[in-house]
Amino acid sequence: MKIREIKVSSVSSYVNQVHKVRAQWDIHASDIWYRGTASQRYKLQPGTVWRGVKNHNLVQDFLLHYEAYSDKSIQEPWSLYALMQHYGLPTRLLDWTKSALIALYFALEEVNKFGGDNKRIVYMITPLDLNKEVINDGFVYNVAQGRGFYNYLPWELSDGEHELPKEPLAIYIPNNNKRIKSQQGAFTVHGSSNESIE
Description:
This protein is an alpha+beta fold. It is built from seven helices and six strands; from the N terminus they run αβαααβαβαββαβ. Helices cover 34% and strands 13% of the residues.
């Protein structure tokens, strides 16, 4: 993915730059996803990569105990995987938002929580282009409907053992979670490659 760095020093200049980039890309606002991070050290990699975790035991433990923390039973496997992400377990999901301002909030808020350097970053991607490159299809699927892409899920949540695709994929997961809804959330699900999508 080609990265172009744009520096801003205020919310208004940030919003102006987002509008300029969107105009240059000549796409609708809803076709851009954003991810805010508190440091340039944080690459576009999911938790299983940067934490160096194999998550099979975590998935099994989560499936045994999640109902104690959830107000409802969830049967749809992608919704369960998103709930794992929500509770901070390392998954191959990477959170994105359809809101430039929400991404900016996370870039600034994470500094207060986790520290960071002086280089906060908001990434912008076009998920349609990512999927054109990966699956030769310029569409972002809701994975719970139709083409489920279950081969990206841990085997405990899918139909058994399968080969994990290599490349990341932009997806929508059913919005059963209030937090995902309020943050206008979307995801990239990452395959066997540990490379960042930058």
